[in-house]
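Request: How about a record?
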Amino acid sequence: MKKLKTVPIIILATLALSVLIYFLPTNGIASKIPFLNQFYTNTTLEVVTIKGKARVSINGKEYGETPVTINELSPGDYTVELERISDSESFYKKQTLNVKLTKNTTSRVEIEIGPAGILHGAILYYSPQNNLGKNEGTLSVLSEVEGSKIYLDGEYLKKTPVISEKLTTKEYELEVSAEGYETVKIPILIEQGNLLNVKTYLFPIPITFETVDNG
């Protein structure tokens, strides 16, 4: 008799868990629980352009104009195409950027599109990282300008490339600078068990010439 009573309890518990998984929002607490998060695809991609708007296409599908946030994406490789909206659109080249999305993370493309294909800003995305301790994540930073200086919360870290630097899980302000180029400053979040990949682009500082009045 005890076995017969146990069966309905197991069935009810299974149904209750199924309902819970189905109705809880994907960005809720359940997505952080190790057992339950396997049922979620709380994967987000944010696309932002600085100083102007751009048309956004992701894996060939159009998503309108920036800023764009796409939720509940499947993990994997994505191709982001940006076309700056301007009266002189021929002045700006269409940009193609690659992002790899990891389950239950938020990736971000934050870019300013300049003339002649020049970019300024950053692409941020996460990758799973093994063999990390409690409250540990890692950071990798690449720059289009070789040997750019990296600062975290105003303190010098090292020059690029930075590969899998272990850090405490929290928010930081990342600064990437190089002589003759405009500095990139962005907030970043180091997550438990993940590697944060950051690829940065720096605008060259325009050269100015002083005019001499001989009159």
Summary: The mean pLDDT is 85. The two ends are 110 Å apart (CA to CA). The CA atoms of residues 177 and 183 lie 5 Å apart.
